[in-house]
Write the structure tokens for this entry.
Amino acid sequence: MTETIAATPAWVALAYLVAGVLFILALRGLSSPETSQQGNRYGMIGMVIAVVTTLIVHDVGLPLIIAAVAIGGGIGFVIARRIQMTAMPQLVAGFHSLVGLAAVLVGVAAYLNPAAFGIADAAGQIFGASRVEMALGVAIGAITFSGSVIAFLKLNSNMSGASILLPGRHVLNLGLLAAILALIAYFVTDQAPLVFFLILGLSFAIGFLLIIPIGGADMPVVVSMLNSYSGWAAAAMGFTLTNTAMIVTGALVGSSGAILSYIMCKAMNRSFISVIAGGFGGDAAAGAGGAVEAKPFKRGSAEDAAFIMKNAESVIIVPGYGMAVSQAQHALREMGDLLKKEGVSVKYAIHPVAGRMPGHMNVLLAEANVPYDEVFELEDINGEFAQADVAFVIGANDVTNPLAKTDKTSPIYGMPVLDVERAKTVLFVKRSMGGAGYAGVDNPVFYMDNTMMLLTDAKKMVESINKSLG
Amino acid sequence: MEHLIPQLSIFVLACFVGYYVVWSVTPALHTPLMAVTNAISSVIIVGALIAASAALGGSAASKWLGLLAVVLASVNIFGGFAVTQRMLAMYKKKERPAAK
């Protein structure tokens, strides 16, 4: 049956290669906002080429396929149009789960009908290499699916964002992983349905178990990791189908997700293993050991804040997840505009793990029409706090905590932080004095002489500041 | 088996390409990066189409699984590219002293 593969016309292989190259260009375009839209178009063209090529080569029942694409495409398009930018993390997690499930379905279809995929001999025995590829693809796809479903539920607040710790989970997970690998090895010698579906079932289970203990603040790593898995699943299916476009894309997506996970871990100074092991970001169980003495802090009003900023020369705004939760980005941009009218220089400082996914804050600011050349990454702006008159922290906490630089016992020690305490005045917008960020660590910035706490909902606070400014 | 080595070569080289291309992506665009990688990983639709078209002596179940996978992958392709486009259109430069 190898001849079915060998019989693929040369132009088909070339078309898939072109699709793969276009996908590379799609990612390449993202190196700058100016080229990014063109890149996205390359991606779409690549997808059209891959789909049309497949439709030409394989004798498909077109009406059914068109119906299927129309249903799926319609749903996807409507979701993409309607979704709020603040809901982007759960949307991406949801999309990951679909890729995972699609990979599983394709794998099962290939298992049930190997001849159609040209991966079995005349007697219906699937080739050894194909068995490994298929089993791996299905396993990774299943993990991606169930893991992403949990991530979606947590991000969408259908499920508590706190980490849920099962006793003995490390042993259980490692045992499951070993069982899956052993079953895949055994599958090479015996292609019985029981083995195949056992691999599938155990993989679904481990996906659930892996993500359940991971707390909300570690979600940027989880979402990136699942992104990576969805790529590896596609690549494994590409091997099964001898399809260059799928192999290239899988490799691209896989490495992309892996790099993003690495960047996120580095930005929290945590190892990938410790994030995956979970348990971080529970409901402030540790931290300061209960004895929270009421330290004095200065509380300010919107009028005070407006007055200070109006008379400043430079203001650096530090947004965090709290800004996303209260949808304060539009009011914040208005505040920036009002300040600029007063001749104040306004910049935004973004910590890599602010928010619930990589680049989350940047998208929200872009949505609110903040020009991207006013938005700076941690390493580019951190030196400027010392010269800044005001650091305006809104909905961020741990990423500004100077203990990360000094206190070796702190759970966030070593994490790169924004040096807001160096600014002449720190305005800290926070819902209340309780709740000390996800790490459960108190932030000494709250109690500094030059800090003014603005304790209320972020959006309401910014709106009243705008009133005083206007 | 003879297909494995060329495929593996493509795979490994593509991983390196991915590594360098992704490091050059500006951090401000990391969210669109995730959305677009999501869309392109739905190239798995190729496998779904093959499964859906494979009437030759195979099981009917395989065909329906393929069709379902086509639906799922289409959600992702259209949704992924559309939402990426929507996000990218929002990234604007400072307009130089225009109005006001």
About this structure: Chain A has 18 helices and six strands. The longest helix of chain A spans residues 128-155. Confidence is low (pLDDT under 50) at residues 1-6, 281-292 of chain A. Chain A touches chain B through 118 residues (CB under 8 Å).
